[in-house]
Each structure stands twice: as structure tokens, then as C-alpha cells.
Design goal:
Elements (H helix, E strand, L loop, with lengths): L1 H24 L5 H11 L7 H12 L5 H12 L9 H9 L5 H12 L6 H11 L1
């Protein structure tokens, strides 16, 4: 039992150190993903008009992946929480093994969003924007 009291905090701390390296390994974070992460960092209840314009451009780009377009549309539809119609689409993204880690994170954070990202989500989003 004492071993668990010592080992668990050490293992937990070490696992926190690996979070930035998940995105470092996935160094091909697209411009669309970075843009959406930046928008989500400052998000409060719903995207601003300027953010909506950026999201529309992201969705219209030929280089934007289908999953990124789905996330952009879900952000456009956001009003305090993701729209019910967008939730199943976001869940598909989080479960797709071929989806880049940063895109999965955007979908996961968006799914759990309630008015604004948590502090932990904001830290993860900041890692994506680097």
C-alpha cells in the first residue's frame, strides 16, 4: 500500500510530462487545426463574428481535411455547447485511428465544452498552436 502511495504520484507526474511530446511527434499540425485551436482558446459561449469568418474560410479551404471541416462546422454551430447533431460526428473523429492527435484533441475538447474550455483543455490547445 505504501508503495502505491509513492509510485502513483511519480507515474502521474511522468505522464503529464509526455503530453507535449504527443503533439511534438505529430509535428505536421495543419494551419486549419492551428487556427481552430487558437479560436477555441479564447472561446466564450460561442465564436465571435471574426472567428466565424475564419471558420468559414477553414471549411472552404481545399487543403482542409474532412474531419477538420466537421470540427469547423461544429464550432460554427456552437452555442454554449456543441449542437446535438454535431456530437455523433465529433465522436467518430475521436475514435478514428487514422486521425492526427491534434485533430482528435479538438474534437474531444469540443465534445466536452461547456461555455468555454477548461484550464487543462486550454493548455492542450496551446500545445497544438505551437
Amino acid at each position: 500500500m505504501n508503495l502505491l502511495r509513492i509510485a502513483f504520484p511519480i507515474i502521474f507526474s511522468l505522464s503529464l510530462l509526455t503530453i507535449p511530446s504527443v503533439f511534438a511527434a505529430d509535428n505536421k499540425v495543419s494551419t486549419a487545426t492551428r487556427t481552430m485551436a487558437e479560436i477555441m482558446i479564447s472561446l466564450r459561449h460561442y465564436p465571435s463574428d471574426a472567428d466565424k469568418d475564419k471558420l468559414k474560410k477553414v471549411a472552404a479551404e481545399a487543403t482542409t481535411s474532412a474531419h477538420e471541416k466537421t470540427i469547423a462546422q461544429a464550432l460554427l454551430n456552437l452555442n454554449h455547447k456543441p449542437a446535438d447533431a454535431d456530437k455523433p460526428k465529433l465522436e467518430v473523429i475521436t475514435k478514428d485511428a487514422t486521425t492526427p492527435a491534434a485533430v482528435k484533441s479538438l474534437a474531444r475538447i469540443l465534445l466536452s465544452l461547456n461555455h468555454q474550455p477548461t484550464d487543462a483543455d486550454t493548455a492542450e490547445l496551446k500545445q497544438i498552436t505551437k
